[in-house]
Input
Amino acid sequence: MRILTIIGIFVFAIASVVVMSNMRPEPPKKERVELDPLVEVVVLENMTANFEVHSQGMVRPRTETILSSEVSGTITSISPKFVAGGVFEANEVLMRIDPTNYKVALEQAEALVTQREIEHDGAKKLQSQGYRAESEYASAVAALATAKAERVRARRNLERTYIRVPYEGIVRAKETDLGEFVNTGSRLGVVFATDYAEIRLPLTDLDLAYVDLPDASDVSPSGSAEGPVVTLSAIQKGREVKWPARIVRTEGVVDEKSRVTYAVARVEDPYRLHSSGEPMPIGTFVSATIQGAMVENIIRVPRAVVRGTDEMIFVDADNKLVIRNVEIARSDSDYVYLSGGAEEGERVVITALESAVNGLQIRTLSEAGN
Output
């Protein structure tokens, strides 16, 4: 009886649970709603773009001269400015070679000219009186001319004992010193002009399509032309410094190895010796922003919108995705400029989609918010 009682209790408990669960009302059922992906779109607009072309290069002097001795002798004096970094004026004497031998040679040449003039005048007088032959007079004329030529040479050699250059500049290197004997052709140092500096800027064929470079026919007799404006920049003392420049010519050939064309930009007074501003030392590596050509009716989109190399996701009138390729005219770090494959007024998806396929139904943020 005890066992039957226990079993009865269990059966009654189970039956009670079943009855109570059947009596509980069922929870309300909600209809499942499939929501289309929500994306943000941008409407394409035509614009006029003024493209900038970027390049870089090294600042070089317009004129650089290796100083060499035209006469031999001992260096007797050197200008205190003739040191690396020294600034000198045009035609300023940088050093002097011992002129003693050349002064003596000039005095001898002048004395010989005087003697030959006396001989010439005597021969001319005698020839006019019929006492000398024509050939003797011609010899006297030739001797006088030779003596005068020797005097010119002696005077020029004396002048060559002064070492100077016809432009204002800076000493790059000093390669001789006081008391040193130099021969004709010995290197004395290296100097360069400071009137303006030049930078060779490599440009690709795509860059050339957006830069109006001067042609060979545009170059003036001075060797320059009015090309596009250039802004040069470099980091100096921990901050960015900019300088104005201008393209004055191209080198007129395509580099056989790199297939680029070099444009030459010019900077006036790079060391700011006669103007205000930050100096641009020779040898500075600079970045260049060249003012490009103006292009009308072009479409600009954020760079992140383009998938792969040239693919974009459009939204048609039925809010369905359309994936197609576009023609890219140019791109930079922020934007891509389209020349084909897209029209003004079309909508482009700017939201990142994991699985975008043609015909996918979507919702736009602008419409969802209304």
Summary: The chain has a mean pLDDT of 86. The CA atoms of residues 41 and 237 lie 45 Å apart. Helices lie at 2-23, 100-128, 134-159, 205-208, 365-368. The domain at 99-160 is CATH 1.10.287.470 (Helix Hairpins).
